[in-house]
Amino acid sequence: MPTYTPPIRDMQFVMHEVLKVADDLKQIPKHADIDADTINAVLEEGGKFAAEVAFPLNISGDTEGCTIDQTTHKVTTPKGFKEAYRQYIDGGWAALACDPEYGGQGLPYVVNGMFYEMLNSANQAWTMYPGLTHGAYAALETHGTPEQKATYLPKMTSGEWTGTMCLTEPHCGTDLGLMRTKAEPQADGTYKITGNKIFISAGEHDMTDNIIHLVLARLPDAPPGIKGISLFIVPKFHVNADGSLGERNGIYCGGLEHKMGIHGNATCQMVLENAVGTIVGQANKGMQGMFVMMNAARLGVGNQSLGLTEVAFQSALAYAKDRIQMRSLSGTKAKDKPADPIIVHPDVRKMLMTARAYADGGRALQVYCSMLLEKEHNHPDEKVRKDAGEMLALLTPIAKAFLTDNGHIATNACMQVFGGHGFIKEWGMEQFVRDNRINMIYEGTNTIQSLDLLGRKVLGNNGATLKKFGKLIGKLVEEEGVNEKMSEFITPVAILGDQMTKFTTEVGFKGFQNPDEVGAAAVDYLRVAGHLVFGYFFARMAQVALREIAAGSTDPFYTAKLQTARFYFAKLFPETATLMRTARTGSKVLMDTDAALA
Amino acid sequence: MPTYTPPIRDMQFVMHEVLKVADDLKQIPKHADIDADTINAVLEEGGKFAAEVAFPLNISGDTEGCTIDQTTHKVTTPKGFKEAYRQYIDGGWAALACDPEYGGQGLPYVVNGMFYEMLNSANQAWTMYPGLTHGAYAALETHGTPEQKATYLPKMTSGEWTGTMCLTEPHCGTDLGLMRTKAEPQADGTYKITGNKIFISAGEHDMTDNIIHLVLARLPDAPPGIKGISLFIVPKFHVNADGSLGERNGIYCGGLEHKMGIHGNATCQMVLENAVGTIVGQANKGMQGMFVMMNAARLGVGNQSLGLTEVAFQSALAYAKDRIQMRSLSGTKAKDKPADPIIVHPDVRKMLMTARAYADGGRALQVYCSMLLEKEHNHPDEKVRKDAGEMLALLTPIAKAFLTDNGHIATNACMQVFGGHGFIKEWGMEQFVRDNRINMIYEGTNTIQSLDLLGRKVLGNNGATLKKFGKLIGKLVEEEGVNEKMSEFITPVAILGDQMTKFTTEVGFKGFQNPDEVGAAAVDYLRVAGHLVFGYFFARMAQVALREIAAGSTDPFYTAKLQTARFYFAKLFPETATLMRTARTGSKVLMDTDAALA
C-alpha cells in the first residue's frame, strides 16, 4: 500500500525560507495581515484532510470507478467520494482562496496551491471534482456580470455547487476553431445551446445539487474559427431569483469514458439539447474567459503531477527501506538480515532521488507561480501586476509540461523500485503512473505548451520576459559569485543561462525563415527552460541550506536539501546538453520523412 | 481502433538485405536447405495468423481479463483465447523452431523470432501462453534426461501442453538465493515439493489439457543461497507411461494478480503442496537450467516490446494522417479541409519517427541475436559456437532492457499523438503502454540487466567481447570510410565507439576501487551501449539503402530507410552525450543521500 505524510516542512521551507512569501504578501493590502503561522496552521489542517479523508479513497476509487444509469443519466461516484466531499465543504476548504465578498476565506493563492498539492497526492481523481470549480470560478469572477456573480459565485465558493469547463468536441480538442456547438439567441437575452462535448471532467456526479457548466459555443452569425466562439454559463438546474433550484436544464451526461486512469473522476460526454444559458463576457470573445480558466487549469495540472511525484516518492522510499533483496555491491550492510534493504543499491537511490528532486523543484515553481498570480491580481502597483502577469505567462507552460513530464519520469521510476509488485494494482504504484499520464495531455498537450512557450511567450516578445528571468539568475550570481561553496550550484545555472540566450536567438532566427523550425525545437526547448528554472530554484534552496548550516544548524533537513541539489545537478540537469543538441538538428530531418511515414 | 499490418517487407530487409541470414544458415547443416523464399512464405502465413486471429482479441482480452473459480482453482481465459490457441496448434505454429526429433519443424530461430514479433504486436497477453513454453522447452532440451525429453517435449512441441517458469516467491524475485520452496527426495527418485510461487505467467489456464511447470526449489541439505537451488519438472497432471494423463498433481493456482496490463494473461499465485516432481539436471545446479530459460525469456521480452513499438507506430501513423487539427505552421497543406492532418506538425512527426526508428533498430538487433543463438547451438565450428555464445551473452541484456525502455518511450509517444483519445481505452493506445510496462520489470528488471551487462558481460572479461563488437564497427569504417555519403551514418558510430572504450576503462577503474561505481553507472552505460549497437545497425541499413539507390532503385522503401537513419542519428542517438556525462558524475552523489532519503 502507498504511504503519504503531508510534506509540511518541505512546503514551509520553500514558502518561508526560500521565497519568503509572507514578506511579499505584506505588500498586498488584502493579505497584509497574513503571517507564516496562519499559513502553516491552515496547511497542517489541510494535510490532515488530504491524508485522512481523501487518501484512503484513492485505490478503492480507482478500482470501483464511476457508473452511469443510462436511463436517468445519473452518475454515481465511487463509494465514499460523496461523503468526503461533504466533509470538504463542511470544513470550509472549498472557500479557502475565494473572495470574502462571496463568502470566501480570502487566503492567498499559495495556500490553496499547497493544499491542492496534498489533495493531488492523496487522490487526484477525487480532487478534480472541487478542482475544476476553481477555473470556472475564476472565469466568472473576471468576466461575469454582477448578476451572474451574485447568482453563482457564493454557492461555488461554499462548494455547494461545482463547476466544469465544456470545451472539447469529438472532432476538436486542440483546435477549438473547429467547434460546432451552436448558441441561438432568445428574446429574453438568454441562449439556447445545442451540441456535443466530450472529455468533460466532473461533468456529472452525485456530490452536489447543481453543476455550473461553462460552455464554449458559436453564435449563428459568428465569424469562423476561434474568433467566433462565445462563452456561456449553463447550469444543470436553473436557478430561481431567490436562489432556489428551478427546472432541469437541457444538458446531460450521455456516457462515461473508459480511461487509462483517474477512474474515480467522471469523464463525461455531455449532450446539450436546447440548454438555456447566459453569455459570459462579450459575444465572440469567449476565448478570453476560456484562457482565464485554462491558465488556472494549467497551473493546476502541474500541481497534480507534483502531488503524484511526492506520493510516489514517499511510497517508494518506504518500500526501499523495507524490502530486502541482494547484498550491497560494496559489502553487506544489514548483517542481521538475510539480504540488504534495496535502498543500498545505487540505482534504487537514483530512482528515488529523481522523484525527490522533481518534487522539490516542482514545489518551488508552484509556490513561485502562486505568488505571481497573487501579485498579478492583487498587488497595488500596476507595474508589479503587469510584470507578474508576464512572468506567470512565461512560466505557466513550463509548470504544466515540465512538471507533468517529470511526473511521468518520477512515477515510473518509483513504480520500478517495487519490481514486479509495482505492476500489481494493490500496491498502488501503477495507479500513480496511470493517473499522471493524462496530465501530459489535457488542458493543452505538452507539445501545445511548448509551442505556447517558445512561439508566443519567448519569441513573441523577443525574449524580453525570459531575459527578466535571466536577471534573477544574474542577481543570484552577484550575491553569491564569490562564495566558493555556492559555485557547484550557481555555475551550471549561469552557464545554461548564457547558452539559452544563444539558443533562443538561433531558434528565433531559424524560425523566422521557416516556422517549422519553431515546431521542431519547441519540446526540447521547453525542457531546457524547465531545467533553467529548476536550476535557479535549486541554487536558491542550496543557498538557504548552506547559510543555515554556516549559522550552526545541525538539522539534517538542510543537509537533505544540499544532497538533493547536488543529485539534481549531477544526474538530471545535464540532459540539457542533449536537448540543445537535438533541437539544433532542426526540422529538416523531421519533415523529410514522407517515405518513412508513408 | 489500432491498426496492424505485419511489416513483412521490413523484416525481409533486415534478414535478407542487411544481415543476409540465408548465407549464414547455409553454414549450418540442419538449415542448409533453407532459403529466403521459405522464410518469407512462413512469415507471410504467420503474419496472417497474428493479424487475423490474435490481433482482434487484444482489446477484448484486456477488457475481460482472466477469472478464477476459487473452489476448483480453474482459470478461464478471455473469450476467444482458447479457440485462437486451438488454431495456433492446428496450424503447427507451436512447432516452428522445435527439433524434428520431437515433431518440430526445425526452422531457424530467426523465423520463430520474427513470427513472435508479429504475435507480440497483435496480442502480447495471448502470446505469452505459447511463448512461455519455449523457455521451458529450451531448459528441458538442454538439461533434461532422455526420459524427461521423451515424456514432455513432443507435447510441448505440438503445443498440446504449455510450459511455465516458477521462480519468484513473495519475498524474493531478483534474489533467488532467498528462496524457500522445499523439495523432499522420495524413495522412488521423485521429489515432493511444497511452497508458494507468485507472478507465474500462464500458470493456469483453460487452453490445454496439461501444463508443465519448471519449478525452482531447495533440497533439505542444500547449501544456502543460489548454490542450493535445484530445478524440477512438476506437471499439472502426472503423465502415465503410455503418455496418457494420470492423476492431478499437488500444484494449483491460489489466486490471480490484478495488474496494470497484460490482463489477458493469467498471472498466478501457485501453491505447491507435496507436488511430485522430477529433478532436471544435477542437484543444487538448478540455476543452470534457470538461465537457459531466462536467457531465452530475456530475448523474448525484448521482442515483446519490439512488437508493441511496431503496432503503436502503425496505429499512431494512421491516426496522424486521418485526424485534422490546426494548420501547419509553415502554411496550409490541406486546402480542401477545415484543418490539416496532424502529421504536418513537426513534433507529431518526431513522436512517430521515434517509434519507427526504435522498431527498425530493435528488429535488426532481434534478428542479429536470433542468428547468434542459431550459431551458438548449431554451427559445426566450435570456435564460431563459442564466439556467438559470448556475443549473444553481451547483447542479451541490451536486447531486453534497451528494447523495453525504447518500447516505453515509443508507446507513450504514439499514445500522445492521439491527444485525449490516447487516454481512452477503446482506442487501444494506452493498452500498449500498460502492456509494455511489465517488460521493463520481468525476467530481471532493467537495472538488473544493466548490472549483468556492465558487471558481468563487459568488465567480467575486461571488455573482450565488447571489443569484438567494436571490430564490427571497425570493419564497416574500413569498407565505407571513403564513401562520403556514408559519413553521416558512420562517423557518429565510430566516435561513440572510441568514447565507449574510454568510458568503459574509466568505469572499470572506478569500480575496481568501489563496486558501487558500477551500480551507479550501469543503467546509463547500458543505454549508451544500446545506441552503439543501434548506431551500427542503422549505418548498415543506410549502407544497403544507399547502394540500392546508387544502383538505380527508385523504390521509396530505401528512401524511407535513409530518412529513418537520419532521424535516428539527429534526434535519438545524441542522448549518449548526456548519459556518459551523468554516468561520470559517479556514485558519491547517489550514496551521500541518507538525509534526503531519511
TrEMBL record, chains A, B:
Residue ranges of domain Acetyl-CoA dehydrogenase-like C-terminal in the record: 472-593
Source superkingdom: Bacteria
Domain Acyl-CoA dehydrogenase/oxidase N-terminal: 82-160
Cofactor: FAD
InterPro entries in the record: Acyl-CoA_dh-like_C_dom, Acyl-CoA_Oxase/DH_mid-dom, Acyl-CoA_Oxase/DH_mid-dom_sf, AcylCo_DH-like_C, AcylCo_DH/oxidase_C, AcylCoA_DH/ox_N, AcylCoA_DH/ox_N_sf, AcylCoA_DH/oxidase_NM_dom_sf
Keywords recorded for this protein, A-Z: FAD, Flavoprotein, Oxidoreductase
Sequence ranges assigned to domain Acyl-CoA oxidase/dehydrogenase middle in this UniProt record: 165-274
Keyword Flavoprotein listed: yes
Domain Acyl-CoA dehydrogenase/oxidase C-terminal per the UniProt entry, residue ranges: 284-451
Pfam families assigned: Acyl-CoA_dh_1, Acyl-CoA_dh_C, Acyl-CoA_dh_M, Acyl-CoA_dh_N
Transmembrane segments: none
Family of this protein: Belongs to the acyl-CoA dehydrogenase family.
Name under which the protein is recorded: Acyl-CoA dehydrogenase C-terminal domain-containing protein
Source lineage: Bacteria, Pseudomonadati, Pseudomonadota, Betaproteobacteria, Burkholderiales
